[in-house]
Amino acid sequence: MEVQRQQPYDPESNRVAARRAADRLTTGQILFAIYLIIANLLEAAGLVFVLRLFFVNPGPLRDPSPTVRVASLSLSLPSTPSLPSSIISGNWSVALSVENHLWRHQFGWDHAQLVLFYHGEFVAGMFLQRFGVAPRGNATLETGTAAFSRDVREWAARAMAMDSEDGGVMELELRLLNHDDDRSQNRSGWDSFDCHGLKVGFSSQNQSQVGSLLSGSTHKCT
Ligand SMILES: *[C@@H]1O[C@H](CO)[C@@H](O)[C@H](O)[C@H]1NC(C)=O
Ligand SMILES: *[C@@H]1O[C@H](CO)[C@@H](O)[C@H](O)[C@H]1NC(C)=O
Ligand SMILES: *[C@@H]1O[C@H](CO)[C@@H](O)[C@H](O)[C@H]1NC(C)=O
Ligand SMILES: *[C@@H]1O[C@H](CO)[C@@H](O)[C@H](O)[C@H]1NC(C)=O
Known about the structure:
Radius of gyration: 34 Å
Strand content: 35-45%
Helix content: 25-40%
Structural class: alpha+beta
Order of helices and strands: HHEEEEEEEEHEHEE
Number of strands: 11
Number of helices: 4
Bound molecules: 2-acetamido-2-deoxy-beta-D-glucopyranose
Keywords: Membrane, Transmembrane, Transmembrane helix
Oligomer: single chain
């Protein structure tokens, strides 16, 4: 300060210095304003995200689909197929393990059906009991053994008879379909699960060809 006061008065250089100072201030202010805008945008986005997560529209983190796996699939067919040969009959049973990822809501199926396909050919179907899984819980849905009898197309009957011979492997697809009474309460918005590539290995047991799910087979449903 002392040094400046001793210098001779120079209005031109003072004006330049003042303009430079003003420029610096303006740049600083602009940067600060940009920072504020970005910070506020991020904050607002974060707040909206958190609000949506917990209150408004359940986002993907809050409402993940349950995980459905085929725990077991058993099929038993008569060793000597009935005539006419296009009728496929026997018994089947399925166990599904269902994992509910929701934190606060029970997951449930009110009127679910399980349908079994052999390479696109409908083989068997059954209705399931009402089923619910507690929040963040696991449960196993067991169908019990049900009989089935279907008139399938000839190629399917022939192929199934071959696949179910001793040591044979049959590839099946399971589909679960559900209709809810009140979707908003039990929050199950997932109407269908597909379990592809289920490989069932067969062996002879008491006049029947009994098959069960091979451990290497795909178990998770989508
Ligand atoms: C299916 O189950 C019924 C009743 O338990 C039994 O009589 C029949 O032999 C079974 N069929 C096969 C192919 O296992
Ligand atoms: C939800 O599902 C469970 C199990 O199926 C059932 O007992 C309960 O009544 C259902 N809740 C509503 C509100 O439908
Ligand atoms: C549910 O089952 C899965 C797979 O079997 C397991 O990883 C998970 O820990 C289980 N969760 C609970 C809550 O039991
Ligand atoms: C097979 O038959 C025998 C007697 O005929 C019976 O004791 C056994 O439990 C049967 N096994 C199966 C798996 O049905």
